[in-house]
Amino acid sequence: MAASGPLQQAHQLTFAAESLRTGEAAGAPATDALAAWDAAAQAWDHLHCPYRLAGALVPAAEAAVDRGDRDGAAQRLARAASLADSLAAIPLHEQIRSLARRARLSIPAGPAGDRAFGVFGLTAREIEVLRLVAAGRSNRDIAAELFISAKTASVHVSNILAKLNATSRTEAAAIAHRAGLAADSS
After folding, report:
1. Which of 3, 75, 91, 171 is deepest in the core (most CB within 10 A)?
2. How far is residue 11's CA from residue 136's CA, in Å, rounded to a whole number?
3. Do 11 and 44 sit in the same domain of this protein?
């Protein structure tokens, strides 16, 4: 279909890039997914849509990794991370960090991590504890993993419940999962 404006064109480019990725996963011949994702990212950049731009930069970085362009992948992920951080887009931020870990890429740790997680008013340590709570760990398990006392773990859990306005560990874990703060399963 013909695109009648820049917004439709950006959506069309994104769809085409996603179709390439889906086709390759289904066994279709490899195509230049990197060029397709870069074109989609450029279209979103021209429209000043930071979330969509970051969303296109992530698969572009993945395609760059597949081609062996680690520097290009790291640059794309760093830009995506900066955008996600500025938007406090926690799930997108976690997706970016996950890809960086899997590809063993180093991206700058921006101040955004704290800013993004500050939505709940949690400290970095409380985020660590919340991830362990979401993984079903007891206070004793949390204490052992973080090298703190069980009492300190208990205090952290109590503070987390209060800050999240949660009545139970299960509710806090559900909030963590919905916000994309649960431990990465990949």
Report:
1. 75
2. 40
3. yes
pTM for this predicted structure: 0.58
What domain range is 69 assigned to?
A: 6-117
pLDDT tens, N- to C-terminus, the chain (186 residues): 677 888 999 899 999 999 887 766 555 455 688 999 999 999 999 999 999 999 999 999 999 998 899 999 999 999 999 888 888 787 888 888 888 888 888 877 654 444 444 557 788 788 889 999 999 999 999 999 989 999 999 999 999 999 888 999 999 999 888 887 776 543
Do residues 88 and 116 touch, judged by C-beta distance below 8 A? Answer: yes
All residues at 6 or more sequence positions from 115 whose CB lies less than 8 Å from its CB, including other chains: 85, 88
> Which amino acid, one-letter code, is at 107?
I
The verdict on 52 and 142 lying in the same domain is no
146: in domain: yes
Does residue 131 share a domain with residue 148? yes
129-167 burial string, b = 16+ CB within 10 Å, else e? Answer: bbbbbbeebebeebbeebebeeebbbebbebbbeebebe
